Each structure stands twice: as C-alpha cells, then as structure tokens.
Amino acid sequence: MLLIFTDLDGTLLDHHTYSWEPARRMIARLRRLGIPWIFTTSKTRAEVEWWRRQMGNTHPYIVENGGAAFFPEGPPMEWGVPYAKLVEALRAASRASNCRVRGFSQMTVEEVSEACQMPFEQALLAKRRDYDEPFMALDETRVDELVADIERRGLSWTRGGRFWHICGNCDKARAVEAVAHAYRDRSPDLTTVGLGDSFNDLEFLRKVDQPVLISSPHSGELHKQLSAAYLTQASGPRGWSEALERILS
User: Fold this and answer.
1) Measuring CA to CA, which residue among 242, 229, 178, 214 is closest to residue 3?
2) DSSP collapsed to 3 states, the chain
3) Most CB contacts within 10 A, which of 79, 117, 152, 184?
4) 7 Cβ partners below 8 Å, 6+ apart?
5) Taking Cα atoms as reference points, which of 121, 97, 107, 240 lies closest to residue 162?
6) Model confidence pLDDT, tens digit, residues 29-50
C-alpha cells in the first residue's frame, strides 16, 4: 500500500496563484487507485477543510505544522499548545531578544490577504488558528536571538515559504509518524511518500520512505540536507504530478 503525505503551499498549490489545476489528473488517478493523499500543512483546519472540498479529498489531514491530525471518523490527535499561549510567548521572546515581529494575531484580515496573496475569504480562514502563530521577523539580524529565546521557553519554531512560525512541542514529522503508524496497523507493508518544498517540510520528509523536494528557491539548500530526496524539475503542482508519475511508474 502507498500512503502520500503532501504539503500544500508551494507543493500541491502554486506558490503565487494557489492553483492546483496541473495536479487534477494525478489526483483523479490516485482516487482510482485508492491511494490516500494526506495534507500535511501549516494551514488551519478551516483552510484545509475548504481545500479538501475543492479537491474531493476524503482522507485524514495534518494542520498547523503538526499541531493536530484530524480523521474522517474518530477523535483527532493533538500535540499543539493553545494559540493564546503562543501569541504571548512570541511577544515575550520579541521583547527579550530585541527582535521586532509581526504575527498573524496583530494583522488584519486585509493584511494577511495581502501578505499571502490570497483572497479575503481565504485570509479569514487563515486567521482561525489553534496551534501555530505565523509571523514576520522585522529585524533579520536578531532572528537567531529570537528563536533561541523561543526554545528557552520550551516551544519550537520553523520557517515556511512566507513566514516564520512559533509552535508547541510539535512538528510535521511527529504527526506524520503517528498517522503512518495508524495506517500500518492495517497495512504492515506500507510505503510512505512525502512531498514538500520548504524548511518546515524537511523533518517530515526524513521520516518517509520516498521523500520528494518540489523545486523552489530553497530546493538547492534543502537537497544538500536531504540528498536522498527526488528533486523535481518543475515547481508547484506540476512538480507534484511529475514526482508522483515517476513513483507510480
């Protein structure tokens, strides 16, 4: 059995337009073959449920950088800490490190829409956060001090295609391992595939049998850290389809 874990932004969705049209045929093929494809993303539950409806995805999904995994049936698995705690911790770390930040909690829906280049309605869903606070570091020279202070507070951080993120003691890798374990209970001969394009995908890609790096401005640096990964020629959903075509063939 094949089990696919896929990032969304910059991977299944185009980084600039959020289009997934080039992946439509491959998604239909996965559906015909009965292969689960599990969203593994920094997006919120509200956002992911919207995208699942658009693409006809009926499988489990992982949200907010491993904050939780949700299943069509049964209770969720949760690893994240409450959002309010993250917001306060980021503010405290910003003060302690003298690194100015601007998080989603400080941004209006219009500002999120502009920063993410997404429609207003999507930005509304992106603001409905539970386990992860995306933020911009306004003093890049002080970022090392900022993330070190976040770690001292017992929290974690990562970096996506557009934003830094502060999280609880969770990440995509831990969530992927847990969901894969649930599938292996039914299919011991499971082969896992992971597709991602950014630094916050790197650790979960180390946990799968067949990692794929989707071409991006960071893919060269990422490939140095994960040389076993297949690096696509195309970016976004075209690269996503290219990789899965190669794997399925």
Assistant:
1) 178
2) CEEEEECCECCCECCCCCCCHHHHHHHHHHHHHCCCEEEECCCCHHHHHHHHHHHCCCCCEEEHHHCEEECCCCCCEECCCCHHHHHHHHHHHHHHHCCCEEEHHHCCHHHHHHHHCCCHHHHHHHCCCCCEEEEEECCHHHHHHHHHHHHHCCCEEEECCCCEEEECCCCHHHHHHHHHHHHHCCCCCCEEEEEECCHHHHHHHHCCCEEEEEECCCHHHHHHHCCCCEEEEEEHHHHHHHHHHHHHC
3) 79
4) 40, 41, 195, 196, 197, 198, 201, 214
5) 107
6) 999 999 999 999 999 999 999 9
Q: What is the reported pLDDT for 53?
A: 97
Domains of the chain (ranges, CATH numbers): 2-78+171-248 (3.40.50.1000), 83-167 (3.30.980.20)
The reply to whether the predicted model has a pTM over 0.85 is yes
Which one-letter amino acid corresponds to residue 205?
A: L
